[in-house]
Design brief:
The protein is of the alpha/beta class. It folds into 2 domains: about 120 residues, no CATH class; about 240 residues, Spore Coat Polysaccharide Biosynthesis Protein SpsA, Chain A. The chain is built from 14 helices and 8 strands. Strands 3-2-1-4-7-6-8-5 form an 8-stranded mixed sheet, with helices on both faces. α2 packs parallel to α3.
């Protein structure tokens, strides 16, 4: 009887996820569509916090300098203690594009207590942009490459919808075996936690954003107290989205017009990326961690176990849940152009992410929580 109950409970969970959670699994909220040109194009400041980003910074800066935005914009790169020549590479990319004047490089100040490195760098860039009269800030990661029309499209959407935050989930690199196995699931799990349709509904409380590409209204950011409002947040994009949504509508969508070129060659690279903030997502709570592990086991691991080892109704319910799981994963797999057979492997993929979450808690216990490029940032 316990096995029968658990198998039907797992099936009920998947029926709810497919029917009642904002259609997250369809991956249908995209940045497609056009908007009427703005009556006037606001001043945009692109702010890039960069710490040892030599590998991708030239391509990122180059794609920004190639924007066909009709208004005025400039790029402010905050060099956060890089040791690999990030700033020099960015300056060289601007010079080669004959746009050296459009790029300003700031040498970051030492990190004060109570701030994460990225947010402290963003604050310095925002302070400089504010002095220059920017009306919107495009907060960008240093590994993002943009289509030439993207800033204009972001501004047009923001103005058409009177959005205080317009964010795009950039398309992550998906080439190595580890990336093909784990990256689509990362997006799938994110959309499950933060259904885009709910985020984009002004009346809903759900708020989320993707930190690689966020267009923020400068006046609203100042109104909430600036980036200092979330100074210690590891999951800074969703924290900022929650604060901004209290002051107006926000928007998040998938896109193919902005992509990350950051490489994750092996499984350990993705583990480090997930482990950096997974335990912070759980508010550093052992109780919540226990619940999440149990929930992941019931939702993802129990169905194949019941399907393979059970019998009768228990086996049928487990098989049905596994099938629903695999089918729900298909739109995300198509978006990333990887084999649909990865849908069958979603239980194993979820097991990997569960291990990464446990590793995140372990790193926190060892005093290495939030480790990013040699800097520990988790709350004590």
């Amino acid at each position: 009887m316990p096995a029968l109950f658990l198998s039907f409970l797992a099936l009920a969970i998947w029926l709810y996820l497919i029917i009642g959670r904002g259609g997250f699994w369809l991956s249908s909220v995209r940045d497609e569509g056009s908007f009427a040109p703005a009556k006037s194009w606001p001043i945009v400041a692109v702010i890039i916090p960069a710490r040892d980003e030599a590998e991708g910074i030239a391509a990122s800066v180059g794609s920004l300098l190639a924007q066909d935005y009709a208004g005025s914009f400039r790029i402010i790169l905050v060099d956060d203690g890089s040791t690999d020549g990030t700033a020099a590479i960015a300056r060289r990319a601007a010079a080669e594009a004959s746009r050296a004047g459009a790029l300003e490089v700031i040498t970051g100040e030492p990190l004060p207590a109570g701030w994460t490195g990225k947010l402290w760098a963003l604050k310095q860039g925002i302070d400089r942009a504010q002095a220059g009269g920017a009306e919107y800030y495009l907060l960008s990661d240093a590994d993002i490459v943009y289509a030439p029309d993207l800033i204009g499209a972001l501004v047009a959407r923001a103005q058409a919808g009177r959005l205080v935050l317009t964010s795009l989930m950039v398309k992550l690199r998906c080439e190595s075996l580890a990336e093909r196995a784990l990256v689509p699931a990362f997006i799938f799990f994110f959309e499950m936690l933060y259904p885009f349709a709910w985020i984009n509904r002004a009346q809903a409380t759900t708020a989320g954003a993707a930190g690689g590409c966020m267009l923020v209204r400068a006046d609203i950011l100042q109104q909430i107290g600036g980036i200092a409002r979330i100074r210690d947040a590891l999951i800074d994009d969703c924290a900022l989205a929650a604060e901004l949504k209290l002051n107006g509508p926000i928007f998040l969508a998938l896109t193919e017009r902005a992509r990350s070129i950051r490489r994750y060659p092996g499984f350990a690279d993705i583990r480090r990326m997930v482990s950096r903030s997974a335990y912070a997502q759980l508010r550093y709570s052992p109780l919540i961690l226990t619940g999440v592990v149990a929930g992941m086991g019931l939702t993802y691991l129990a169905p194949p176990l019941f399907a393979l080892l059970g019998s009768g109704l228990t086996q049928a319910a487990g098989l049905a849940a596994w099938l629903l799981m695999a089918l729900a994963f298909q739109p995300t797999l198509r978006f990333y152009r990887v084999s649909p057979l990865w849908g069958i492997a979603l239980p194993a993929i979820a097991f990997c992410y569960t291990l990464f979450t446990l590793d995140s808690a372990l790193q926190y216990a060892r005093g290495k929580g939030g480790l990013w490029k040699g800097r520990v940032q988790a709350k004590e």
